[in-house]
Amino acid sequence: MKHPIIPIVAAEVPAANAIPLYISETKIQPRAVRGWFATWRWTLVWFTQLLFYGLPWLTWNGRPAVLLDLTSRRFYIFEMVLHPQDVIYLAALLIISAFGLFLFTAVAGRLWCGFACPQTVYTEIFMWVERRFEGDRQARIKLDAAPWSAAKLAKKTGKQAVWLAIGLWTGFTFVAYFTPARTLGAEALGLALGPWETFWILFYGFATYGNAGYMREQVCKYMCPYARFQSAMFDRDTLIISYDAVRGEPRGSRPRGVDPASVGKGDCINCTLCVQVCPTGIDIRKGLQYECIGCAACIDACNEVMDKMRYPRGLIRYATQNALANRWSTATMWKRVFRPRVLVYSAVLLAIVAAFIASLALRAPFKADVVRDRGALARMVQDGRIENVYKVQLMNATERPLRLRIGVEGLPDATLDSAGEVELGPTEARWVPLAVQVPPQAARALGAGAHSMRFRIAEAATTTGATAAPFELREKSTFVVPR
Amino acid sequence: MSDFLNSTWSWFIAITTVVSLIACLVLLFGAMRRKPMADDNSTGHVFDENLTELNNPMPMWWMVLFALTVVFALIYVYAFPALGSAAGSLGWSSRGEHDADKAKASAEMAKVYAAYAAQPAEALSKDPAAMAIGQRLFINNCATCHGSDARGSKGFPDLTDRDWLHGGAPAKIEETITLGRTGSMPPMAMAVGTAQDVHNVAHYVLSLSGSPYDSIAAAAGKSKFTACAACHGVDGKGNQALGAPNLTDKVWLHGWGEEAIADIVNHGKTNVMPAQSGRLLPEQIHLLATYVWGLSQPRELAAK
C-alpha cells in the first residue's frame, strides 16, 4: 500500500509576531510561603547546612574529623583512614546514591530537587536574605521599578554584601574539607593563602553567589540534566504535585461563605497564589511541567487559601495520575504507591547498604601488596639453598602503631631471611624487602619453574588485645626455582 | 619540533581551526535575526497533519556564555601551540613544563637532603630517618639490578658482602654511583694459548680460591697465568684501581666452575654500572652511598 505524501504547509505568519531566537529571561519574584512542606524544606536547609558548614571544624584524634588530604592521598573520615585502594567504597556510595534516587523518585517524584539540592537550598537562603532587605514579592517588584534613591541603594548594597559574605564563607568551607579549617583560617587572616586555595575559594564562592543570587531557576530549567530525565523514572503511580482539575474547575471568584457548587464553580478561586509562590514561574494548574522542581510551595499556598475559604485542603496535593484519573481514596492510592517496582528498589538498596556498612566495619587495619624481584629472579646461596627476593608494601590504615608478622604458606620448608616482624607507625606505609629461602632438597622436589605460594601477613597478638582475633591478609606470589 | 613532514598540514589545521571558531560566532549571531512566530507559540509550520514545532527562545545568558567561550578559544589558540606548528605566543611546551616541574621538585628535595649533605657516612648511617630515605632510594633506583635485598645476582654484585671491585670506602662507593663503572676484561684466549691452555689456566684459578681443582692441570696453567697477572696481580688478589676482581675469594660474580672461567677467558666480559649523576642529586647519592656502605657493616643498628 502506498503511503499518502502529506505536503509541508508553509506558514503565513504576520511579521509583527517576529521574536528573536534569544531573549533575556524575566526575573521571577516568588512570594513567601508558609506551611507543612515549607517547614520541611527549611528543616532540610538547616540539617544540610549545619552538616556542610560544621563538619570541617570538628576534630578527632587531634586532627580534623573530615579531611580529604589530596597531596598525601589519604581521606580521613572520623575513625577511618581511606587509601586510594579504597576507591571501591566511593563506587559503592555512588551506587547507593543512584538506587536511592531511583527509589524515592519512583515514589514521590523530584524530592531531591525541591528539598535537598544545593541549588534549591542556597537559593532559599539567598531569597530569605533578599526578603529581609527588600521585602516580599510586591515590595520587591515596586523597588525594582522605582528610581534609584538612598534607600534603594542601601537595601541593594546590604543585600549584595550579605550575599557576597555567604558566598565567600561557602567557598572557604568547601576548601576547608581539603586543607584543615583552622590552618586555612589562620592563612586567610594573615593574607597568606596558597594560590590554589585562593582560586578555589573565589571560584566556589562566585559560583554560589551567581547561582543562588541570579541564575536560580535557570539552572533547573536549562542546565541540570535531572530535570530532563525525570520522566524516565516516573510512572502513573508516582506521587506528583497535582492540581485536582475535577474538583477545582471551573475556576473563578465567588462570594464568601457560598457553596461553590451552587454558583457553578469549582474549588479554585483563581487567586493565582500558586503561580506567585512558584520559584520556577509555572502554573501548576496546567499540569505537571518539566520546570517544576517539586518544592510544594504551591500546595502550601493553596492549602492556606482553602483554610481561609473553609474548603477542604488538598486542591493541589501530592497524588498519582492513576489516583486522579480513577478518583481513588488516599488509602488505595498509597497501597498502589508501594508497588513491586518500589519494593524491588527498596530490597536492592537495603542489600547494598548492608553490604557497604558490613564491609566498612570489617576492614582490615592494614593493606599489603607483594611485588617480587624480577631483575634477580632467583639465586643460590650458601648450602645450596634457593632464594627469591620480594618487596612487601605494608600500609597502616589506622592511627595507632601496628606490629605485623610475615610468614610464608604453600612452600614446604620455606624460611624467611629475617625475623619477618615489622612495626608500622600510625598511617605509615613502607616497602619491606625480604628474601624467602628453600633448602636444596625441597627445591629439587618442587622442580624448576615458578610455583605459586602465599605470604601471610598478620597483626601480632600484642597490639590487638587478647579478645579480638588478629587480622590476617594473604597475598599471592610465586617462588622461582632456576633450571 | 614539529611532527608534520609537510607544512601544508600545519596550514590546514590552523586555517580550519580559526575558520571554525569564527563560523561559530557567525552562526550564533546569524540566528539572532528575528524569526516569525505564530499565535500558538509555534513556528507556524505543520508536518504530517498535526506536528508543530514550538519556538521557545533561548536564554540570553546562554548566548553570552557561548560567545565568551569562542573568545576564550581564540585567545587560547593564540597563546598556546594549537595552530599547526605555530609555537604560541607564550612559548609553552610540554618539555619546558616537565623541565620546570623537575627543577622545582629538585629544589624542594634539596632542602630535605641539605641537612644530611654535610654529615660523614659513619655518623649518617646511625640516623634511622636518613637510612630510611636511603633504603627507599635504593629500592627505587638500584633494586632492579642489585635486588631488593642488595644481594645481587649473576652479573650484578652483592653489595652486602665485603668484596668490592673498585673499593668499599664511602667516598669510593659515592664515586661508583655518580660516575658509573665499566669493567672490561678483554678476551684473553690469544694471550693464553690453545684451548688446553685455557683449561689449565681455569684450573689454576680454581686452585687460588680453595675450590676443588685438577692439580696437574693447575700446575700446567700456572705459567700461563702471567698473562692475567697484569690486571689481576701476580697473586691473583685483584686490582681495585682497574676493577679487576680478586680471584682468591669465594665470590663468583659471573658464575663458578671451570666452564664459567673458561668462557670469560675466551670471550672476555664487559660489565657496566650506569652513572647516576644525571638522575640523582649529589645529596641523594651521598645518602644512597651511606646506605649501601652501611649494608656491608656489622649490624650495630637496632632492627627497624
List the helices and strands and how they pair.
The complex is a heterodimer of chains A (483) and B (304).
Chain A: E1 22-23, H1 36-54, E2 59-60, E3 63-64, E4 66-69, E5 74-77, E6 80-82, H2 87-108, H3 111-116, H4 118-134, H5 137-145, H6 150-176, H7 181-189, H8 195-215, H9 217-223, H10 225-233, E7 240-243, H11 245-248, H12 273-276, H13 297-309, E8 316-319, H14 321-326, H15 330-337, H16 340-361, E9 366-372, E10 379-380, E11 386-396, E12 402-409, E13 415-416, E14 421-424, E15 429-438, H17 440-446, E16 449-459, H18 461-464, E17 472-481
Helix pairs in contact in A: 1-4, 2-16, 4-6, 4-8, 6-7, 6-8
Chain B: H1 7-30, E1 42-47, E2 51-54, E3 58-59, H2 60-79, H3 94-117, H4 121-124, H5 128-141, H6 143-146, H7 170-179, E4 181-185, H8 189-192, H9 195-208, H10 215-222, H11 226-232, H12 258-267, E5 269-273, H13 282-295
Antiparallel strand pairs in B: 1-2, 4-5
Helix pairs in contact in B: 1-2, 3-13, 5-13, 7-13, 9-10, 9-12
Largest sheet of chain B: 2 strands, antiparallel
* Annotated CATH architecture of the largest domain in chain B: Orthogonal Bundle
Strand content of chain A: 15-25%
Count of discrete structural domains of chain B: 3
Largest sheet of chain A: 5 strands, antiparallel
What does this entry look like structurally?
Chain A is elongated, with a radius of gyration of 33 Å. The longest helix of chain A is centred in the middle third of the chain and has 27 residues, at 150-176. Chain A is of the alpha+beta class and 483 residues long. In chain A, helix 4 packs across helix 8 (195-215). Chain A has helices at 36-54, 87-108, 111-116, 118-134, 137-145, 150-176, 181-189, 195-215, 217-223, 225-233, 245-248, 273-276, 297-309, 321-326, 330-337, 340-361, 440-446, 461-464; strands at 22-23, 59-60, 63-64, 66-69, 74-77, 80-82, 240-243, 316-319, 366-372, 379-380, 386-396, 402-409, 415-416, 421-424, 429-438, 449-459, 472-481. Chain A is built from 18 helices and 17 strands. In chain A, strand 2 and strand 3 (63-64) form a beta hairpin. Chain A has two domains: 24-240 and 288-297 and 310-363, no CATH class; 366-481, Sandwich (Immunoglobulin-like), CATH 2.60.40. The two termini of chain B are 50 Å apart. Chain B has a two-stranded antiparallel ribbon with strand order 1-2. Chain B has a two-stranded antiparallel ribbon with strand order 4-5. In chain B, strand 1 and strand 2 (51-54) form a beta hairpin. Chain B is built from 13 helices and five strands. Chain B has helices at residues 7-30, 60-79, 94-117, 121-124, 128-141, 143-146, 170-179, 189-192, 195-208, 215-222, 226-232, 258-267, 282-295; strands spanning 42-47, 51-54, 58-59, 181-185, 269-273. Chain B has three domains: 7-79; 102-180 and 274-295, Cytochrome Bc1 Complex, Chain D, domain 2; 184-273, Cytochrome c-like domain (Cytochrome Bc1 Complex, Chain D, domain 2). Chain B is elongated, with a radius of gyration of 36 Å. The relative contact order of chain B is 0.12. Helix content of chain B is 52%, strand content 7%. The longest helix of chain B has 24 residues, at 7-30. Chain B is mainly alpha-helical and 304 residues long. Strand 1 (22-23) of chain A pairs parallel with strand 3 (58-59) of chain B.
